[in-house]
Amino acid sequence: MEVTTFNQSFNDAEFALWDKLGAVVRLSYGIGIYGAMALAGKFICSITGIDCMGGFHPSLTAIVEGLGYAVPPIMALLFILDDEVVKLSPHARAIRDVEDEELRSFFYGMSPWQFILIVTASSVGEELFYRAAVQTGVLPPFVPFAQAFGAVITAALTGSLYFVAASPKAWYERRQLKKIYSPLLEGLLALYLGFEWNQTQNLLSPMITHGIYSAVILGHGLWKIHDHKRRLRQRIQQLKSEERGSSSP
Fold first, then answer.
1. What is the mean pLDDT of residues 80-90?
2. What is the 3-state secondary structure (H, E, C) of 169-227?
3. Residue limits of the CAAX prenyl protease 2/Lysostaphin resistance protein A-like domain (predicted)?
4. Average pLDDT for residues 189-209, to the nearest whole number?
5. Taking the CB of residue 155, how many other CB atoms lie within 10 A of it?
6. Distance CA 214, CA 208 (A)
């Protein structure tokens, strides 16, 4: 009995160590990607001769606007991911399945500071690339309605890149086609952030909106996964206790 307990404890410790190492690797990979996006955005801005910071200026107005713009998309997605909505809508079920899969494969196991770091890096890197460089530096010279066109095309580009990166085989495997929901949501968020930046003309606002949105949605999803596992462990322990009670004379 003692040997079995020791072996189980050793295996649990070993798995915990590998989980921590995996989280560090994923964190480094994510920060590297977002850092490369920021550098690419700076390079594009240097070629086109525009401000690579997208009018970034710390101010109370920008902070309030960023927080205010974050509320509608957060409330909309939390409503879609609600248990009752998921039971009634297969589309909502598909969205939550994909979101949960991404959370388990990338974010699960990260410490709070690692989670905050990757959310911050994604908010800064993506906004510098998509908003300051692509939406402002690449697309506007080609059309008269530059701002709206830039926001729409940037949103389409964002969704396409997310889909290619996350599900490269999904177009060819019908059973995986539900994975298009996640890039679609990213594209809609990018469109929303693009119009926000057009209105505020301060890159700090969409950065804050992006960061708050990601932190709330991802944090809520991780909490749901953790709560589900906790209840599952409690149920297993209860069944074991009932089994021992029924087997005892």
1. 84
2. CCCCCHHHHHHHHHHHHHHHHHHHHHHHHHHHCCCHHHHHHHHHHHHHHHHHHHHHHHH
3. 111-215
4. 89
5. 22
6. 10
- CA–chain centroid gap for 169, Å, is 21
The amino acid sitting at 108 is Y
Q: Tell me if residue 145 falls in helix, strand or coil.
A: coil
**8 A C-beta contact, residue 200 and residue 58:** no
Alpha-carbon distance of 145 to 147, in angstroms, equals: 6
- CA-based nearest residue to 205, from 115, 116, 123: 123
Q: Which two tokens stand for residue 141?
A: 């010279």
pTM for the whole structure: 0.77
DSSP track, 63-83: HHHHHHHHHHHHHHHHHHTSH
b/e sequence 207-241, b meaning 16+ C-beta within 10 Å? bbbbbbbbbbbbbbbbebeeeeeeeeeeeeeeeee
Token readout for 241 is 């206790």
How many angstroms separate the CA atoms of 37 and 122, rounded? 9
